[in-house]
């Protein structure tokens, strides 16, 4: 089948430029070297780093807070709040903290804050969607003001990889103001301070001049909610923004000849996938799940719609993550085989299937998937919702989640445990699949420090996914930013937007 390319009309471009002029008031302030203006897709759903971790939230709060450890631009795990660490046993790890970190209110960051942050995010009653990434941690103990010990339930090889996204919050402030108030006015220790949140419009940060590490180059930063991609592009071209996220390949192509802006592109750890609810009809039938897998032309999606920037994958992981198995194959595009399996299922295959999506995703891809599935004989209808609603339903477990959903998963950890466990294991609200063998393998892989044993277990999990198709891996996602010509910023596989790693050039 063929995928129609999008035609860009002059009228649409003029409307986009007009929208860029009017979207934020009659006379929007121009971006300048004193202020970085970033256009997100949506406003953050949370600025409390332990409540949510969708991209639009993460882009902002990651600069307000420090994490226990982080990754450098090469992808290596390096110190941040923790200056060093050592394993006391397979289940105990001790961190020595930097002595010179203060929160934005001037109070000192200590081991009590680290222990509190760990216990907060691992408390099931707190309800963090990140719980599955940290639930192997059973205790956090402050041994002294500068030392903290974490205890895990068995060996946990992905611990450090997961801790790169565990932000440290100030215990005294959170306990004093409560969860809701802290979300509205977060206090961290990062290179930027929270200034204001104009709901539905923008979040404003200011530089933390007392920051212990590399200072931010921008005195002020504004993150704006700009849902329309054409408007984000027009803002860059008009000079009213400095950085725009989530551009598509067509927009990247337009920036090749732009005078003010450029495209910044990199392959990420994020894997795009189609999730099938295996506990409800019609995808409780494995043959129909395989039909869906055979119906998807991954190469067609990447080459026809994504400009070839992304990379088709045959497993639910990407090559930059531990657990990727080189050479592993899965169902490949075969429309005739898909049609045969749908025909074999009879009337059950004709029921209407809801395909859940949200505006943050590339709707060209969602619509192409719908077309491909319907070409195979299924009856798929797209159901659009805002990102917050999409996320809430996606985490609701198989009884409440949609029949079919498009997603792009990143754990920001570059480890298979952060992808396969939450999307497959029965304990995760994200999982719409039940397979005791897969669960056992995932548990085995996160309970040994032996890399070879972990890889062997993940290989079997990938093979189960290929055979039963509870999810259809699609492609390794490329991240495409638009940036003003004099902004230096290197995209990373974990898609972290570290403001203090950016710079202006003349």
Automatic annotation (TrEMBL):
<keyword id="KW-0732">Signal</keyword>
<protein>
    <submittedName>
        <fullName>Peptide ABC transporter</fullName>
    </submittedName>
</protein>
<comment type="similarity">
    <text>Belongs to the bacterial solute-binding protein 5 family.</text>
</comment>
<dbReference type="GO" id="GO:0043190">
    <property type="term" value="C:ATP-binding cassette (ABC) transporter complex"/>
</dbReference>
<dbReference type="GO" id="GO:0015833">
    <property type="term" value="P:peptide transport"/>
</dbReference>
<feature type="domain" description="Solute-binding protein family 5">
    <location>
        <begin position="76"/>
        <end position="426"/>
    </location>
</feature>
<keyword id="KW-0813">Transport</keyword>
<dbReference type="Pfam" id="PF00496">
    <property type="entry name" value="SBP_bac_5"/>
</dbReference>
<dbReference type="GO" id="GO:0030288">
    <property type="term" value="C:outer membrane-bounded periplasmic space"/>
</dbReference>
<dbReference type="InterPro" id="IPR000914">
    <property type="entry name" value="SBP_5_dom"/>
</dbReference>
<feature type="signal peptide">
    <location>
        <begin position="1"/>
        <end position="31"/>
    </location>
</feature>
<dbReference type="GO" id="GO:1904680">
    <property type="term" value="F:peptide transmembrane transporter activity"/>
</dbReference>
<dbReference type="InterPro" id="IPR030678">
    <property type="entry name" value="Peptide/Ni-bd"/>
</dbReference>
<dbReference type="InterPro" id="IPR039424">
    <property type="entry name" value="SBP_5"/>
</dbReference>
């Amino acid at each position: 089948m063929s995928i129609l390319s999008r035609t860009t009309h002059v009228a649409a471009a003029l409307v986009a430029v007009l929208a860029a002029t009017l979207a934020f008031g009659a006379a929007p302030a121009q971006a300048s070297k004193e202020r970085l203006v970033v256009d997100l897709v949506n406003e953050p759903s949370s600025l409390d780093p332990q409540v949510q971790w969708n991209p639009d939230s993460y882009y902002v709060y990651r600069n307000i807070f420090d994490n226990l450890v982080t990754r450098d631009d090469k992808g290596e795990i390096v110190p941040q709040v923790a200056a060093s660490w050592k394993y006391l046993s397979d289940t105990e790890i001790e961190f020595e903290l930097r002595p010179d970190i203060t929160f934005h209110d001037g109070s000192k960051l200590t081991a009590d804050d680290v222990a509190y942050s760990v216990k907060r995010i691992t408390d099931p009653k707190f309800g963090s969607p990140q719980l599955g990434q940290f639930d192997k941690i059973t205790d956090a103990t402050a041994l002294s003001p500068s030392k903290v010990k974490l205890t895990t339930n068995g060996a946990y090889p992905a611990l450090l990889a997961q801790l790169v996204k565990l932000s440290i919050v100030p215990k005294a402030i959170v306990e004093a103001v409560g969860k809701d108030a802290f979300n509205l006015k977060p206090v961290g220790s990062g290179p930027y301070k929270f200034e204001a949140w104009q709901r539905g419009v923008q979040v404003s940060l200011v530089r933390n001049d007392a920051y212990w590490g590399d200072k931010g180059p921008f005195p002020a930063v504004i993150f704006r909610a700009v849902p329309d991609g054409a408007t984000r592009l027009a803002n860059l071209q008009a000079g009213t923004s400095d950085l725009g996220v989530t551009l598509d390949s067509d927009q990247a192509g337009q920036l090749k000849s732009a005078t003010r802006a450029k495209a910044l592109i990199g392959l990420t750890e994020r894997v795009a996938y189609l999730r099938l609810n295996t506990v409800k009809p019609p995808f409780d039938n494995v043959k129909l799940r395989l039909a869906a897998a055979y119906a998807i032309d991954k190469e067609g999606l990447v080459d026809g719609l994504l400009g070839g920037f992304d990379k088709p994958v045959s497993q639910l992981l990407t090559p930059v993550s531990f657990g990727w198995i080189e050479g592993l194959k899965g169902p490949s595009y075969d429309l005739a085989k898909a049609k045969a399996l749908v025909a074999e299922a009879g009337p059950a295959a004709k029921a209407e299937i809801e395909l859940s999506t949200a505006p943050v995703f590339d709707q060209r891809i969602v619509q192409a998937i719908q077309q491909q599935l319907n070409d195979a004989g299924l009856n798929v209808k797209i159901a659009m919702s805002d990102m917050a609603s999409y996320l809430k339903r996606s985490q609701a477990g198989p009884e409440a989640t949609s029949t079919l959903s498009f997603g792009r998963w990143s754990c920001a950890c570059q480890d298979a445990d952060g992808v396969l466990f939450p999307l497959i294991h029965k304990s995760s609200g994200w999982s719409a699949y039940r397979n005791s063998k897969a669960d056992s393998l995932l548990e085995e892989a996160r309970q040994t420090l032996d890399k070879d044993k972990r890889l062997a277990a993940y290989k079997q999990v990938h093979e189960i996914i290929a055979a039963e198709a509870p999810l259809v891996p699609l492609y390794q996602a490329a991240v495409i930013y638009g940036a003003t010509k004099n902004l230096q910023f290197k995209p990373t596989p974990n898609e972290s937007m570290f403001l203090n790693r950016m710079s202006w050039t003349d």
